[in-house]
């Protein structure tokens, strides 16, 4: 989902700085809330692990350019369910930054757009999760239908943001809209795969109960709210 250089340029790119600042500020709020309710050690540990995973998603996992952007297997809902909203958001922002700084410096000017595109759908998915997942259900007991709804929300949000940046930068010409459509169609195929990965990871966690109570995993993985 990397926004390509030149898609949004000039003074228009200032909007991305504002949206990224807002997204990162909300991430800081989530982090502070987690420190107050859990511990700073848990936040740091989960954030480091999430950052390493996100870097792998971007740099190691297969990714292909399609239309206005690239199709990546970004397991946002997996990170959210396993680590919680704050570590997932920090991991996405930090993993993207590491990848941009050391492996794709040409993407640094687009960092604001990219981080907004990753984080805002994550926040929306976290809100949806509270509605979709009953309070008396542990995450290890989730169904495919429940994880599918979360995946649609997250991946669909990414597609919408990429489409917004493309239209904001290049308008509503037929060629631009066709490129957005081809990207969206390709990206939404991830929706079919991500819930299966979520369930596989949660099944592994369910069979490895020794991690219950560990600082590395979100409490809801094993416990009801």
Summarize, please.
With 225 residues, the chain is mainly alpha-helical. 67% of the residues lie in helices and 3% in strands.
Descriptive overview:
Helix content is 67%, strand content 3%. It has a two-stranded antiparallel ribbon. It is built from 8 helices and 2 strands. The two termini are 33 Å apart. It has a single domain, classed as Arp2/3 complex 21 kDa subunit ARPC3 (Orthogonal Bundle), CATH 1.10.1760. It is mainly alpha-helical. It is a multi-pass membrane protein.
SSE order and pairing:
Blueprint: H1 14-37, H2 40-59, E1 64-66, E2 69-71, H3 76-83, H4 85-102, H5 111-132, H6 144-170, H7 174-187, H8 190-207
Antiparallel strand pairs: 1-2
Protein name: Cobalt transporter
Pfam families: CbiM
Keywords: Cell membrane, Membrane, Transmembrane, Transmembrane helix, Transport
């Amino acid at each position: 989902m990397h926004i390509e250089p030149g898609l949004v340029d000039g003074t228009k790119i200032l909007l991305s700085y504002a949206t990224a600042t807002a997204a990162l500020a909300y991430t800081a709020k989530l982090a502070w809330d987690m420190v107050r309710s859990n511990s700073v050690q848990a936040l740091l540990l989960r954030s480091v692990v999430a950052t390493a995973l996100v870097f792998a998603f971007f740099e190691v996992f297969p990714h292909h350019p399609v239309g206005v952007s690239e199709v990546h297997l970004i397991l946002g809902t997996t990170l959210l369910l396993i680590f919680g909203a704050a570590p997932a958001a920090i991991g996405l922002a930090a993993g993207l930054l590491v990848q941009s700084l050391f492996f794709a410096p040409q993407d640094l000017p687009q960092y604001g757009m990219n981080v907004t595109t990753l984080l805002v759908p994550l926040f929306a998915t976290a809100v949806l999760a509270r509605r979709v997942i009953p309070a008396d259900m542990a995450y290890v007991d989730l169904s495919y239908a429940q994880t599918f709804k979360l995946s649609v929300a997250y991946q669909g949000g990414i597609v919408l943001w990429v489409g917004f940046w493309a239209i904001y930068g290049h308008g509503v010409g037929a060629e631009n809209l066709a490129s957005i459509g081809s990207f969206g169609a390709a990206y939404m195929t991830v929706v079919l795969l991500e819930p299966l990965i979520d369930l596989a990871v949660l099944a592994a966690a369910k069979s490895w109960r020794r991690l219950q109570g560990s600082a590395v995993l979100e409490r809801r993985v094993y416990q009801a709210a």
